[in-house]
Structure formats: C-alpha cells, structure tokens
Specification:
The chain is built from 8 helices and 12 strands. It is of the alpha/beta class. The chain is elongated.
Length: 233
C-alpha cells in the first residue's frame, strides 16, 4: 500500500518536526516547507495527496499559496492550520480554496482524522464495524444495566448517555466476561491500529467510563499493567 503524501508548510519548526514525526510513525510520507514560496515550488515537484498549510508564513501566506494552487488544481485537498479563528478568517480560508480548517493548538490525532476523511471516497471516516446490530442485547453489570443499542447505562431512574465510541469500548469489555482484554485488541478493534495517539484516546475514554460506572462501587475497570483492562463487579 502506497503511503499518503503530505506537503506541510509551517514556519514554526518545532511544531513542524513534531507533526512530521507523528505522521511518519503512522506511515505517512511528509514533505516539510518553511515558507509559502517553498511550498509552491515543492508542490509542483512533490505532487502531494494533500496539503497542510499554515496561514501565517513568510514570503507567501497560506491563503496566497492556496489561491495559486487552485488556479490549476481544484481537487487536491487543502487543510489550513491557524491561530486565527475569527469568522472572517475562516471565510477567507474557504474562499481561497481550503477544504478544512484546524485551529492551533491542535492534536495530531485530529489532524490525521481530518486527512483521512478528506482522502476517503465518501468524505467520511471508515472505521471497522465491531458488532452485528442486536437491538435486544443488554448487559447486567452489578446493579447497572448497559444497553449498547441505546448507548446508555441505567442505574434505577438515572440514565447515563454514552458516545458511540464509549459504548463500543464498554461492549468489548462486557463481552470479555470479566477476563482481561488487551490494549492491543481494543485499539485494533476500535481504531484499526495501536498507535500512540489512539492509545492516548483510549485512556481518555476509559477514564470517562470509570466515572460513569462509579455509581455502583462494585463495578470497576481494572488496569492490568502492561496488558490491558478488565471489567469486574
């Protein structure tokens, strides 16, 4: 499988190198440019799949670079990176030919998702389907009732709504039947790989689930160090 070629123009060198290293760890190929003039030159030579342009750059800003590219290329996606978030700046960016706009500071994970969406056939993120739909599936977890189809945890009259991703994680933990579920399996099932950024996201979701489940003190998500997680009650 060919790597996705990203041309990134960013004059903050520390940020640029951090982002490049993170993207390359995820099997992207990255061409860095320090200013708009260099970005235009490298664009013609490199023929990237997508451009990530800082708005405020020396020699030529991101808006100018995008306008010039759009004179001959209407299809290569362009994402702007900027600290400027006033509505007029956003409008100017889209009028210049941007497909997306990411405000600084941003997470590299969010940038990766936006790149994948823009390069996907249907402009939606393709994620693996974990389970066959079963509207009657219910898990009794201690004194709690978890209804995956409703994305909800019920404790008496109290109903805690979950996001789809939270619900998917809890469903996997429930299906493990109080056995340890490895982080690697969770990450590969949910995100398709076990990269550092996906692992950090998983940690955040686990923290949220623990908060939701603590209404029944007997229910716990235990961290098995170096292995994974176990849902017990």
């Amino acid at each position: 499988m060919e790597k996705i070629k990203v041309l990134m123009a960013e004059d903050e060198l520390a940020l640029a190198h951090i982002v490049r290293e993170s993207l390359e760890e995820r099997e992207f190929e990255v061409m860095l440019c320090a200013d708009g003039e260099q970005a235009l030159k490298k664009y013609k030579e490199y023929k990237p799949d997508i451009l990530v342009l800082d708005v405020m750059m020396p020699k030529a800003d991101g808006f100018e670079v995008a306008r010039k590219i759009r004179e001959t290329d209407r299809s290569t996606p362009i994402i702007f990176l900027t600290a400027r978030s006033q509505p007029k700046d956003v409008v100017t960016g889209f009028e210049a030919g941007a497909n997306d706009y990411l405000k600084k500071p941003f997470s590299v994970e969010e940038l990766i998702v936006r790149i994948k969406v823009l390069l996907s056939k249907d402009r939606v993120l393709n994620t693996p389907k974990l389970f066959k739909d079963d509207p009657n599936e219910v898990f009794n977890i201690g004194g709690l009732v978890f209804k995956p189809n409703k994305n909800s945890i019920i404790n008496g009259v109290h109903v805690q709504q979950l996001t789809s991703r939270e619900s998917d994680i809890l469903k996997l933990l429930c299906r493990s039947e109080q056995q340890t579920l490895s982080r690697e399996k969770l990450l590969n099932e949910l995100w398709g790989d076990d990269s550092f950024f996906n692992a950090r996201s998983l940690d955040v979701f686990i923290t949220k689930l623990r908060k939701y489940l603590k209404t029944d003190p007997s229910v716990q998500i235990i961290n098995i160090r170096g292995v994974g997680y176990r849902l017990v009650w």
